[in-house]
Amino acid sequence: MNSYAHPGVLVETEWLGNHLADPGIRVVESNEDYLLYDTGHIPGAVKIDWFTTLQDPIQRDFISKTAFEQLCSRLGIENDTTVIFYGDRNNWFACYAFWLFQYYGHERLKILNGGRLKWLKENRPIHMEFPAYPATTYIARDPDPSIRAFRDQVLAHVQKGGPLVDVRSPGEFSGELLHMPNYPQEGAMRGGHIPGARNIPWSQAVSESDGTFKSFEELRQIYQVANGFNPQDELIAYCRIGERSSHTWFVLTYLLGFSRVRNYDGSWTEWGNLVGSPIEKS
Amino acid sequence: MDRSEILELLLDHYHNPRNKEETPDASATWHGGVPGCGDVITAYLTIADNRVQRATFTGEGCTISQAAASLLSEQLVGQSVDAVAELNQAVIVEMLGQDLVQTRPRCATLGLDAFRAAAQEFLRHQRLNALTGGQG
Description:
The complex is a heterodimer of chains A (282) and B (136). With 282 residues, chain A is α/β, with parallel strands linked by helices. Chain A folds into 2 domains: 137 residues, Oxidized Rhodanese, domain 1 (3-Layer(aba) Sandwich), CATH 3.40.250.10; 126 residues, Oxidized Rhodanese, domain 1, CATH 3.40.250. Chain A is 28% helix and 14% strand. Chain A is globular. About 2% of the residues of chain A have low confidence. Chain B is of the alpha+beta class and 136 residues long. Chain B has a 3-stranded antiparallel β-sheet, covered by helices on one side. The chains are: A alpha/beta (282), B alpha+beta (136).
């Protein structure tokens, strides 16, 4: 057993395998790979795509509250449905979707520990059918600004010396990786990191063997002992577009019990392009 | 093709990629990738009489990036190296449809970028050799 701060946000593959027919749950696959769901998915699971489903098609922002309500209705999600997210890449975009559902006030949210990879490694069933559920009447809450950071808030945070965690790779953090030959990095004009940020790559939070989250004590050693963060800190997490940092937001908030963590979803694609934004290289 | 046929074709190329192998003695090679995303492709072109005799690739990544590279590798054989050097996104849109390309434009065009860059590299060397009499 573990001693996570909020262990109820995780479900194990075995539990899910035994509860796929529960009417009160909806399993949602959310991947980086757009077509992975189409190659086979957990029986009964529906698909959410971080880009085509969760982003406003015109403005750089998430879908509106109304569009979110329509999405939940279309996926057969009621206000009291337990939504269980899983996906590829150690649940990056599962956590991203979790974070957005939290932003719009959905209460019963969980992550499948180990994600899609663990489910497949255990030879659990995969279906090709695309399920459809009766539409619901879903009422979302107003967005919760306490879990999201915007650029002006990040700047104010930097100016007062507030703690930040940059969860990208060391090469991105140092500024060495601006782009690879012939492939400019996703829109960033400058390389480096936000001043004062500590670099804790997201991958440090998961086990290399099966992709599950590390234990409470292992996570505490990484974030609190080695890097000096405290559960009461007003902390901002960021990466390149906000998906890897939503993973770390999840770890800090639910597994370690930090109470004031915000995800800066504008992340480096915004900060690295902002005229006049302060940047450090190392 | 409608969307379901395109999906079926893509999944077939993802599970059974064509021309996915190294060509050690290729006329031109280019390595490309999408940083942070994990998709990487190395493109190999074998060129004779300024035409592509063989196009292969290696790499790993998401379904769209790998399947699109496989599809494209089949289309390049027989084309002039100048034409390959000037390919643009339209060829991918033609293969996959605008809707699908828009979902992941960088992944969909990764193979295209690598093959085009390999062709451009070949032409650069060819021009350089012409200028230096093969001493360049």
